[in-house]
Amino acid sequence: MTDQNDILFERARAVIPGGVNSPVRAFKAVGGTPRFIQRAQGAYFWDANDKRYIDYIGSWGPMILGHGHPAVVEAVQKAVLEGFSYGAPTEREIELAEAILALVPSMEMVRLVSSGTEAAMSALRLARGATGRKSIVKFEGCYHGHADALLVKAGSGLATFGNPTSAGVPPEVVQHTIVLEYNNLQQLEEAFALHGKDIACLMIEAIAGNMNFVRATPAFAKRCRELCTQHGALLIFDEVMTGFRVGLHGAQGVLGITPDLTVLGKVIGGGMPLAAFGGPRAIMEQLAPLGPVYQAGTLSGNPVATACGLATLKEISKPGFYEALAKKTRSLVDGLKAAAAAEDQPFNADSEGGMFGFFLMNELPQNYATVMTTDNAQFNALFHGLLDRGVYIAPALYEAGFVSAAHSDEDIAATVAAAREIFSKR
Ligand SMILES: *Cc1c(COP(=O)(O)O)cnc(C)c1O
């Protein structure tokens, strides 16, 4: 049979760079042909050959209810009939803002945007505008979207300013970005000792999902908060992935830390382009039209996207939602660990709420460098083995995984059985 994915990939590559609109979709790290998805329902999606997969990426986080949740579909269909976009304010934007603020107590005001990149970029500008400072701190392995100042890796030496990770980003644009190792207290202390009076903000994924799944240690997260307070810098939690994913109150709820600014995305749009950033009133009122920090968006607060987000938030706010989701995710992680142990494979895994990560090593990594010591060939064999067996995990070893409310015990058991079969052939 002709592989329809191959045919589509060839067509795509003729008109879209690499055949994809976001690089990780191209399967470059794992090899092979990306699957072109034609439809999705619940915990599954189907590719161009009509092959079904259990979906553990969930659009990289947003699909926390599974695909096509009836209440969300209904809300979106109703909204579409009322118009797609007005470029004028709506009541639904207030409702969504109120819903977000009720769930994230550190935020007193919020502004809606269309992507996580836009939200992180805007939060950064706001932090610089509100503090009148230039320097920003970020950590190796944390991803905050692709704004120029954030496409940066550590330079040589400790607590130094970074080097661009992308062509097209002049070194001057990242000269105020300090890149530190995640969970490295000594580097953190040093950076604030050296540059504290110039630091506008520290931005962090407090549970990182872009270097697989790595938690900030409680001591590290606490020290980030203390040093920001002490030096007059703003602490920004990028919760685009963790917000409404690791729990109803995000990573800040899990860690018990109050950031100054919070960046949200993914789940708050329920699969539609929607993101947000927010924090205390005094800081948020620095934004245009009230204050001097400019920020805008033609499709911001889009009426269809806000309907989708609101319906999603309503479902995940129901009592017991996260307990059930966390239990399900833990059963996957425990099942995979047991399967690896039974086959004598080096393996470890961790999860919080509906987000998980696994590692082909015995320890849980604390930083990006350790994650990247993963054996590529072993990961790729596991990825393709699962894919062949109808299980779709992230096609790169540095990405987290996601379980939705629609995944059944049978789905989890089938996934664990598939993994064990692959492990047994090593
Ligand atoms: C996905 C992600 C972003 C970027 O969001 P986009 O909507 O892809 O622009 C930013 N920060 C984190 C933590 C993310 O996971």
Keywords, please?
seven-stranded mixed β-sheet, pyridoxal phosphate, 13 helices, Aspartate Aminotransferase, domain 2, isomerase, four-stranded mixed β-sheet, Aspartate Aminotransferase, domain 1, alpha/beta, 37% helix, binds pyridoxal-5'-phosphate, single chain, porphyrin biosynthesis, 426 residues
Describe the structure.
Belongs to the class-III pyridoxal-phosphate-dependent aminotransferase family. HemL subfamily. It catalyses: (S)-4-amino-5-oxopentanoate = 5-aminolevulinate. Pathway: Porphyrin-containing compound metabolism; protoporphyrin-IX biosynthesis; 5-aminolevulinate from L-glutamyl-tRNA(Glu): step 2/2. A hairpin with a 2-residue loop joins β1 and β2 (44-47). α2 packs antiparallel against α9 (303-316), α10 packs parallel to α13 and α12 packs across α13 (409-424). A 7-stranded mixed sheet has the order 4-14-13-12-9-5-8, with helices on both faces. It has a 4-stranded mixed sheet with strand order 1-2-3-17. The protein has a 3-stranded antiparallel sheet with strand order 15-16-18, with helices on one face. It contains 13 helices and 18 strands. The mean pLDDT is 97. 37% of the residues lie in helices and 16% in strands. The chain is globular. The protein has helices spanning 4-15, 70-81, 91-103, 116-131, 185-195, 218-231, 250-255, 281-284, 303-316, 321-342, 368-371, 376-388, 409-424, and strands at residues 37-41, 44-47, 52-55, 109-113, 135-139, 152-153, 163-164, 177-180, 199-204, 207-208, 214-215, 234-239, 261-264, 275-279, 348-352, 355-359, 391-392, 401-402. The protein has 2 domains: 4-68 and 319-424, Alpha-Beta Complex (Aspartate Aminotransferase, domain 1), CATH 3.90.1150; 70-316, Type I PLP-dependent aspartate aminotransferase-like (Major domain) (Aspartate Aminotransferase, domain 2, 3-Layer(aba) Sandwich). The chain is α/β, with parallel strands linked by helices and 426 residues long. The structure holds pyridoxal-5'-phosphate (PLP).
